[in-house]
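notes to self, project folder thing:

trying the whole complex as one job this time. last attempt i did each chain seperately and stitching them together was a nightmare. two parts in total, labels are on each line so i dont mix them up again. if this works i'll redo the older ones the same way
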Amino acid sequence: MQRTVDFKLPHFFNYPPYFTLQPVRETREKQVQLWKELILDYCRSQKMYIISLEEDFPLFSNPKIERSLSYEAKEVFLAALVSEGRAEWIDKNHKKCLVLWLRIQDWANYILDFVKENGLEVTTIEDIRSGIETHGTELAGIDRGVLMRALRLLEQKGKAVIFKGSSADDEGVKFSV
Amino acid sequence: MRRRPGIAGLQNAAATRDKFRLVGENVAKVRTDVMQEQLATFRSQLEEFARKHKSDIRKNSVFRQQFHEMCAKVGVDPLASNKGVWAELLGIGDFYYELGVQIVDICIATRSHNGGLIDLLELRKLLCQKRKTDLGSLSSDDCLRAISKLKVLGSGFEVISVGKKKLVRSVPTELNKDHNGILELAQAKGYVTVEQVEKDFSWSTGRAIDALETLLKEGLAMIDDGHRDGKRRYWFPCVTLSSDASGSEAKS
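result (full assembly):
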């Protein structure tokens, strides 16, 4: 995996002690806060949804200063995101994490705006993920699970209806905007 | 004067003394008047000067410092009270009060990062960012003046010298000689190890660990167990500028 150029890493990423879990409470709180923000910002800029603790992830090591996060540290930072509703463990063993850089509610609103702007009252799930209109928006390549949850939320609110499309593997959505 | 005998002589002498005293008083009075006149002239000239150069004083840090020095020489403190003629005239009091408030802001905002101890240069950089000016327009002297005004609040703001650096302390942590020594040592690389402290100061391991643990608890130090030599490093954010926290040591 490689880091894309257009993401500016914060100063603390180059300061070695931020890669060791701090024992003093106040210092730890600050450290966790900075990492939480960094993980969300980074995933958003790279449109990443899943972080696996057991695989390499560009944010969790900094070759320039020869430091990397311990397994425990990664778990602490992700757990902090989970406790705030900004991430979810997707397995029982807490090895994989779904990062919600937009909350489901925010995704739902984003989709509604997107649909209004582009006049896409009736469309398909796949088109939302990779249609022409999607290019350059947050929706490009959105995690299917996240998208479905946002759409179901809209369905609950009576703002969308999901229906079976013509082909078996695609579903359509009708929005009432 | 030759003393003459008799009552007339005594009366004469008394009259002469009176005359001398009168003349003396006159001279003194004239002198005082002249002095007062000169002072008034000087004061009005200083006011005139201040009025004329108000914007320079506000904008130019070198000019500001020179103006302060000039005022100090004639015993005028333009910051003594914001209601004084000087402050009103210049708004110079406002300048330092505003600066003071910004200093408090920054010290509090960075406290969780540096434990309430910040390098004066770092503080200046952050101030300039906040004020959207460049570093040259705000001198260390300005910051020190503003901080000295903060002392009135009893808020524990203080400037301490550690090695070559000046650090601004915004928490009432008492640093003893051991702690100061470590902070000074840390300026070289941004961090120290227990071993290094023992060796440099010829301390026992216990003494070194004690001092480092205190600094850690106070939030002034952060531990780093990530170096491949396995030795714990104690980093001190207060002696590392955020702009050059590039960890250039890591390769060594």
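what i see at first glance: Strands of chain B lie at 117-119, 158-162, 165-169, 191-192, 222-224, 233-235.
need to look closer tmrw
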